[in-house]
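Before relying on records like the one below, remember that each one covers exactly one chain. Contacts with other chains, cofactors or solvent are not represented anywhere in the record.
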Amino acid sequence: MTMSRLIPSARMILQAGAAFAALSAMPAFAQDTATPAETQAEETQGYDGEIVVTARRREETLRDVPIAITAFTGEQLEASGALDITDIANTTPNVTLEVSRGTNSTLSAFIRGVGQQDPVAGFEAGVGIYLDDVYLNRPQAAVLDIYDVERIEVLRGPQGTLYGRNTIGGAIKYVTRRLGDTPSFKLRGTYGSYNQIDGVVSASAPLGNTGLRVGAAYARLTRDGFGENLTTGAENYDKDLWAARGTIEFEPSAEAFFRISGDYTKDTSQPRGGHRLIPGIATGAPVLDDVYDTRAGLTSPAQEVEAWGITGLIELKPADWLTFRSITSYRKDDSATPIDFDSLPAVQVDVPAFYNNKQFSQEAQFLIDTGSFSGLLGVYYLDAEARTVFDVRLPGGVTALTYGNVFTDTVAVFGDFTYDLGEMFSVSAGGRYTWDQRQSTILRQTFLGGGSPFFGGAGTLFATTSNFRGEADFAQFTPRASISFKPSADHNLYASWAKGFKGGGFDPRGQSTACRTPAGGACSPQQVYDFLAFDPEKVTTYEIGYKASLFDRRVNLALAAFQSDYTDVQVPGSIGTTINGQQTFVGVTTNAGKARIKGVEFEGNVIASRDLGAPGGTLNLSWTLGYLDAKYLHFIDARGIDVANRRKIQNTPDLTASGTLAYKVPVGDGAISASTTVSYRSDSQQFELRTPMLDQPAYTLLDANLVWDINQTFSLGIHGRNLTNERYIVAGYNFLAQNPDTGDFLRTPAGAYVPTLGTEGVLTAYYGNPRQVFVTGTVKF
């Protein structure tokens, strides 16, 4: 049989199979207000109207990229009423993005079971967050509010070749708008539940015919609390934030582009007080009725998160086939936060904390495009410092001070290339070699009679339990390869293989005196080093995928199946223990061993009807599905026992799904759009060991939006989030004694819980947002 006869048959099989998948999945999942961008290609500009992304650091359509990727345009996010970057997780398969515990601004991110929950310096996220291609080295100030955004891209799977050592789960790219060639102005106001008052204004203009353009955006975001602090009278879960961004661009010719941008954010919201899940053990303090209320008594230091950065971008095109790009950035953030673990007025487990981060990065890229051959070569440098200081204040005036300081120097060279073997086949290969150096200082001191001097305490130094300085070097090669088969421009079948790693380091909360020899004596310096150190973790992922547009692009879908082999998994944790008769707080970080994560992801969209109800009326159905089979294969606990079958990967539901039903109809000079979204997440654990009451059962969220674009200048909208007022836990603390195999809480003969820190017991939860309804108005010209 000739190839010319075979190809049409293959196309018919692909189209029939894809149509069957789309139709069979349609009833199972409704769609989401923040529709994946690949399902809305006709609404944005790019190649033939399709979404253009830079997942491989060069412009490509979503369908052509051999990566599982979801993208959201700024217009989609605005129409859906998205408030911050965590909102996109509801409609992105196998992704968890949550606000971490005591602030509005610290992010916990997991993709395909890989991530990092603990925001302490010394631990780095397994999901890379990028602001205009600048890597944010720490999770503080990483809950990015959505304003002045062009698009957000979510890249699932290890991205170590192009994005570096800490992207073994994936990467999230927040891309701001470039300035236009004509003057523009936009004002957006919001008012809603809990006295939500938001204002965003942005403007830009060219300066004559000089090639210079200037722009600025300002956001003021406020909201009363969802609950109240019954001890201090302060709002709980409120929001008080302002942010600004300024940009100067210079484009003297088509061969040169220069950009300097700066951003600033200040969050002075009240500290988030947690909700106790058990009565006080010593006092019997009852559990509060409202999960957003708290009795937390710690008020110092005053909560404040301040972050800023400046970035310089240079793009030069010395030849048609060659582009040079330079990205230079400096970023800094400082957080002061009082975290009352026990959420009671008395000093039980009170943790005042400072987080200070700064980083300088430089990246240079050479992009090549000769038609059939494209790719890039690059070099990257990062110099970062992260400091964490906190007290753990216990009853009786005992305070454990932890001071951790981590310096990171990273140099990497990388390349990634694609060669088109013909119209149907292309192959890609790349690799990155990274040199990592980590220097850590760990100081642990015990004070009696009050807090440590770092937080204005008058305690007396009783003991120094850690005074450690360590250095470690890591070098790693992370390759990737893929092959794509495109029987036509509307189909892409691909297979890929990629490796990634996350750097090792030292537990900044470690207590060196807790290291004991087998005979029970004090450890040698080398043994202390080994006790506090943890190794890099690594992942190898195999993936096959299919992306297609069918029936004149009325049906769009993306399907991926993968397996990740995850080794030396870093499991940071903190425990309460008793040493020499005194309760104390100890950080415990282990490299658990091995895990295997298998999964499937599906994203689909169908234009179900055109000219429905009126000329131009369009009914759209979109849905997503993510399934994970994530298992530890080897997990050695502190007893030296393999407990793999008794541990689960944290913050990783087996099933995530969403569906959106949307209708848009022209009205006068504009249009009316209505949509409703259902999103579902199956049960998940906060930590590797089961924690009753704190682990989150399965839940479903319902959102809805109605937007009237009156004309090109004015629009009005009403948005509802979590309309069923679901209560769901996003983070928490546990310092109760547990059975190390089952997770069941230990009890006294009288049936009381056994606290490991304090006398009241700590089982504290933080919750996602309740029902919110808000209206928006936009003016733009």
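The chain has a mean pLDDT of 88.
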